[in-house]
Amino acid sequence: MKQRFLQKTVLAVIMMVAVLFVYSQGGPPPPPPPPAPPTGVPIDGGVFLLLEAGLVYGARKLYQEQ
Question: Which long-range contacts (CB under 8 A, 24 or more apart) does 61-64 make?
Fold first, then answer.
């Protein structure tokens, strides 16, 4: 009877230690941080609109001189 109790106790301790090892492992690593935004300002349509306005203004001035 005492041997049966000892077997059950040892088995329970082994199972508890195994469960502790399984649950003590950390989860998956966190995902990497997102990439940094690009530096500098891209040239967009606003620059071309300004260039067109300058060309139109210059052409108008040339036309008015004649």
Answer: none
Q: Take residue 8 and report the two structure tokens written for it.
A: 């059950």
Q: Which amino acid is at 47?
A: V
**Whole-number Å distance between alpha carbons of 63 and 66:** 6
Each residue's pLDDT, cut to its tens digit, for the chain (66 residues) gives: 788 999 999 999 999 998 888 777 777 888 999 998 877 766 676 788 888 999 999 999 888 887
> What's the DSSP call for residue 24?
T
Instruction: Give how far the C-alpha of residue 18 lies from the chain's centroid of Cα atoms, to the nearest Å.
Output: 35
- The letter for the amino acid at 34 is P
Q: Is the dihedral of CA 42, 46, 52, 61 positive or negative?
A: negative
Say how far apart CA 12 and CA 14 lie, in whole Å: 5
